[in-house]
Amino acid sequence: MTKSSADQPGAQLRLHAERTGDPDTLRFVVGALGWSADGRWTADSPGGCPGRLLPLIERGQLASVEIHGEQSLLTRAQTGDRWATLAPACRDAILEEIASVDDLTRARNIVARSTGEVALSHGGGLRIVSLTDTEVQVAMVGACRGCPASERTLRAGVLNDLREAGIDIDVLAVTD
Amino acid sequence: MQSRTSAPAQRVALVGSPNAGKTTLFNALTGLRAKTANYPGVTVTRRVGSVRLGDRVVELEDLPGTYSLEPVSPDEQVVSDLLEGKNPDASPPDALLLIVDATTLQRSLVLVGQALQLGLPSALVLTMIDEVEAGGGSIDIPALSNALGIEVIAAVGTSGRGVESVRGLLADPAGWPRPVLEPPKDPEGLAGWIDSVTGRALHVAGERNPWTERLDRVLLHPVIGTLAFAAVMITFFQVIFAWAAPLTDAINNFFGWLGGLAKSNIPNDLLAGFVSDGLIGGVGGVLGFVPQIILLFVMISFLENVGYMSRVALVMDRVMGTVGLEGRSFVALLSSYACAVPGIMATRTIPSSRDRIATILVSPLMTCSARLPVYTLLIAAFVPNTSVLGPLRAQGLVLLGLYLLGAVSAMLLAALLKRSLLRSDNLPFYLELPPYRVPGAKQVAIQAWDSAKMFIRKAGTIILATTAVLWVLLNVPRVEAPAGLEPPQAAAYQMENSIAGQIGAAMVPVSTPLGFNWEINVAVLSSLSAREVFVSTLGQISAAESDEDRSIADALKSKTRPDGTPLYSAGTVAAILLFFAFALQCMSTVAVMRRETNSWKWPLTAFFSLLLIAYVAAFIGNRVVTMIAG
């Protein structure tokens, strides 16, 4: 797989849509959303809603948007609206949203929510310091710092997280 | 495709990669009620069958296997044109049944994603799920169905598992669930979609069958694998001689008896001669080789279904690389072992047009099944059935040698062409290595029978027609035999002075260096229509010259030249065998070459250059063998 070109961020992103038990609710399964937290937004409480999805709520096409876990984004249509046009609109909005966040922020959010959690459960932590086209620099904190096994256990996890986010990198350097 | 009923039946197309199990499922669903035809304008085979569901009939169409709807080969072009409605003579189907090999789920989803973009009602049949399970893997089918947004059914065509569910599904294609969101069109987006879908559905990918791994370590080894291939081939040709001979004798005895019956019961002498010598002696002589042909195809089909043929293609890809052709060419050349016509059609999978033409030009050199009757007739008659080394017998080895000669000269000619007229870069080639499978006996039998049918049909058409024309040419004009000749000699006199006999005699100056007399000339000339005609012509001549029903082989052995030496000396036999190894004596092949290359230039080049090579090889062979034989 080739690395996605710089002007097309998120092009390689893992994404598909699924029906749910409720015909009005569609689940977008996204490889790496890169949001910092879960949430549910409606026309009445739009605060903190991912910016590109907000217009769909404001125009009355979506009743609500919900981020639930790292991979799941639920959109609930206003009754009567057809997914045929709305689903592609939602997808485009999600892709634009992801593209609008710079890679470093996205990478930090993603890693914090997956591999970072693993590190946390071991009493440690990690933080992405910098990200270039070819290399990611990670700083270990807490129990991870100085732990001889940490680099080996976390390296694969971090690189995999980034790959899911469409950031294809093979070099991980640990800094202080 | 015209529907016979007033209300047009629903047309459902099977779309899938090669080896995904499309055809097995097609057979299981239609119960083999398939009609084959060609797609309008092209010669890619189109298989259509019908599935009865109560009072309704659904028409099922088995499309050629394709990895993608972005075609790289002419074969794939047919599929994508048909599905996208770009074929002016055939409308797109009403619905698609996507056939996916569960062991290659991830890769197969490229085609699935592209097919879903067409917007036709689609459902997915997951085949080979038993192999994923045997390897300890599992696929979450409800999750896959949910992620794709379409119906997914696991089915194993060979055991019938899930086939009823597929049949139930076919009742109402219009009501199938559609994906809620089309997969992305851009390749990178599509790759992301595939990763996302498999992430949901694929629990454990499963190990490959451990036996497959172990066997492949041996069979794909550059040295051991090549030796194993040689061993398989040696066994192959020993078996053809050892097992088919008794059956051939039985068939020949039957036609001998039938010919005698015709001769004694048809009052009109001329008509009796035509039926017993021409038809039964000629066409019957060719049909005597049906056991060999069936055995050949059973073995080819067995090796193919076991999964060995694709290994051979991979081992041979290295060899092919050295002559400048790719593995796909080898696959096409391998089909030419059965018959050059499907072999040439199989070149449609080759993307490079120069490679394709090079492969088409050399495919007539591969030893097709039409040469088998000629080879076995002459070898059985003139090569002693002695043991060379343990169970290896001389006859089988000579036959193997002729097959090797065909393959080696095809490679050499290809190398020559690729270094001169048809130079081009190699395109990447990937080949699927299915796990080794115990083939279903029915599948092998069906494939072998389909191919053997072609041989028998040929006997009933082109061979029958040439035999009939030749009978006339051998019996016109009627000449009065000199008094005192026994009937067999009188018949020989008649034929020697017929139109055919005179043509054969006129060619003697050219054919003497090869050791051919007028009679062999007539047989070789007539075999330009189809190689088996050589056997039917000799059968016809020897049936006319003999009262008792003896085999063609015995008749050939007793022939002498005017000076009393055997007509079929070692040198002459070698010359005939070599001539047949090289010459393009098959009008069907010439016609298909013309059609596939869209010009007369290549078929004519092939015909005349191979004729020249055949003549030179036969001449050298005659000289060398005569010298050795003393």
Explain what you see:
The complex is a heterodimer of chains A (176) and B (630). By secondary structure, chain A is of the alpha+beta class. Chain A folds into 2 domains: 86 residues, Ribosomal Protein S8, Chain: A, domain 1; 72 residues, GMP Synthetase, Chain A, domain 3, CATH 3.30.300.130. In chain A, 32% of the residues lie in helices and 28% in strands. In chain A, the strands form 2 sheets. Chain A has a 5-stranded antiparallel β-sheet with strand order 1-2-5-4-3. The longest helix of chain A is centred in the middle third of the chain and has 18 residues. The radius of gyration of chain A is 18 Å and the shape is elongated. Chain A starts with 14 loop residues before the first strand and ends with a strand. By secondary structure, chain B is an alpha/beta fold. Among the domains of chain B are: 198 residues, P-loop containing nucleotide triphosphate hydrolases (Rossmann fold); 230 residues, no CATH class. In chain B, the strands form 3 sheets. A 7-stranded mixed β-sheet of chain B has the order 2-3-4-1-5-6-8, sandwiched between helices. Chain B has a two-stranded antiparallel sheet with strand order 7-9. A two-stranded antiparallel sheet of chain B has the order 10-11. In chain B, a hairpin with a 2-residue loop joins strand 3 and strand 4. The radius of gyration of chain B is 28 Å and the shape is elongated. The interface between A and B is medium-sized, with 22 and 19 residues.
